[in-house]
Design brief:
3 domains, alpha+beta, two-stranded antiparallel sheet, Gyrase A, domain 2, about 450 residues, 4-stranded antiparallel sheet
Length: about 450
């Protein structure tokens, strides 16, 4: 029976210290993300025990409640409404756009706090990346097959428009996340993709529209936020509405043109070259490490910090070669869950959890299986990582042979990634290599868990 989203939201807030303890509310594809003023007031164990809650990740002043796709949007909406009704929004706004109380906000570490905030910039863009990526893949199939020639130009425009202007959205979200005016962040970031920058010379060469991509947009908006805050503290109130936006756009825009775009372009090129070199020279080893370590990143909620790298590779090469490798972690998780299902035949509750979570796992949503099955059992989490490592090594081996597999968008994985696959040898070859990696991950995850995932006292057949 499906849990009522309103009841779930009320129960979550009660165990998160009450609405007054919540400083911000957001969500990604599977997690409700709460900022809390007093982390000590959160009852994490009670949250984990709630029906419908698949897992809880605490991170200083951040709290992530894993609810699963679809459900999380509804619960988030009710949570936001309850926080507003309780008057939490009446407190002074904090630097991240949520409500905050001076002296109460704490972060686990500066690095994790920065990664969380960068993730907050890119996570809201994922639905558009998915939708446009699927349309781009469909359009590519139509073009290759010579079908519907009258429709493909329109599909190209629809699928490519967002990616052409993604820098603007990144700039808007960056300014919002770091306490600036969102539209000013978007305005400065728009310089990166403006066609007229081709007439500008920096460091002796003409700039290229889009040079630096999302990294340049991120840097430009961060600079705009700093300049805006500097102006707010120095410009007289009567002139603030006129001078602050003007100075912010002028200073940040010129620095973006004559420094940040060039520097970000160098970094973006280095990321692409590093990814190509890594797979061409150490393909199996790189795949083994990336596939094996991704589940712990998901467990900690740090996997979203990789979004800027994926987005940079997509903008530069047309696809990200890292996502198919990382997606193998989900395959190892599925294989491990199947082994648990076979071994623990008399554990009705656990087998019911596996049956309900397995479809999501096959489609690349791993949190239900992580928090509901493998992590509580301990060893199956490690053997699931082994399965992911094996699948990653399989895909990496073919990349070293010259068969690169990439994804044209981020967000989906598992079987849901097939419509987004691309590669230097065409989509069919990419799909074959990726499918082989999934099967390898399933098989090794199952075998490793079946053989080594249980202690001598574990219940088995």
């Amino acid at each position: 029976m499906r849990n009522d989203p309103a009841s779930t939201a009320a129960a979550v807030l009660a165990r998160a210290g009450g609405p007054g303890n919540v400083t911000s509310v957001a969500h990604c594809m599977t997690r409700l993300r709460l900022g809390v003023a007093d982390p000590a007031a959160v009852d994490a164990e009670a949250l984990r025990a709630l029906p419908g809650v698949l897992g809880v990740v605490t991170d200083g002043a951040g709290l992530q409640i894993v609810l699963g796709p679809g459900v999380v949007e509804e619960v988030t909406a009710h949570t936001e409404a309850l926080v507003r009704e309780a008057g939490a929004a009446a407190r002074p706004a904090g630097p991240d756009g949520g409500v905050d109380e001076p002296g109460t906000r704490r972060e686990a570490t500066p690095v994790k706090a920065l990664l969380r905030r960068v993730a907050n910039v890119f996570v809201p863009l994922i639905p558009a990346l998915i939708g446009c990526g699927v349309l781009a893949g469909l359009n590519g199939l139509l073009l290759n097959a010579g079908l519907l020639p009258a429709l493909t130009p329109a599909l190209t425009a629809v699928a490519s428009g967002f990616m052409a202007l993604i820098a603007v959205f990144v700039g808007h979200n960056t300014a919002k996340e770091f306490g600036g005016t969102p539209v000013l962040g978007g305005a400065v970031a728009a310089v990166v993709v403006y066609p007229g920058v081709a007439k500008v010379t920096a460091f002796g060469v003409h700039l290229v529209p889009g040079q630096g991509g999302v990294l340049g947009a991120l840097a430009a908006a961060l600079l705009a936020t700093r300049v805006e805050k500097w102006c707010r503290g120095r410009v007289p109130g009567a002139l603030d509405v006129l001078l602050t936006p003007t100075v912010t756009v002028l200073v940040s825009g010129l620095v973006t043109l004559y420094g940040l775009m060039y520097a970000a372009g160098v970094v973006a090129a280095a990321i692409g070259a590093a990814a190509d070199w890594l797979l061409a020279t150490t393909g199996p080893a790189a795949g083994l490490v990336l596939g094996g370590l991704f589940l712990p990143l998901v467990m900690l909620g740090l996997h979203q910090a990789l979004i800027p790298i994926h987005t940079t590779l997509i903008a530069q090469q047309g696809y990200t070669v890292l996502l198919p490798l990382l997606a193998m972690a989900g395959a190892g998780q599925v294989g491990a869950a199947l082994a648990v299902y076979v071994r623990l035949r008399h554990d009705v509750s656990l087998r019911t959890t596996i049956r309900s979570a397995l479809p999501a796992g096959l489609l690349g949503v791993g949190e239900p299986l992580i928090y509901g099955v493998s992590l509580p059992l301990g060893r199956p989490f490690v053997t699931a990582c082994a399965g992911g490592a094996a699948g990653g090594a399989f895909v990496g081996f073919f990349a070293m042979l010259g068969d690169k597999v990439g994804a044209t968008a981020i967000g989906p994985s598992g079987w849901a990634l097939f419509p987004l696959l691309a590669g230097n040898r065409g989509p069919m070859t990419a799909a074959a290599v990726y499918g082989g990696g999934l099967l390898t991950g399933y098989a090794v995850g199952f075998a490793a868990t079946y053989l080594f995932g249980f202690t001598g006292r574990s219940r088995s057949t």
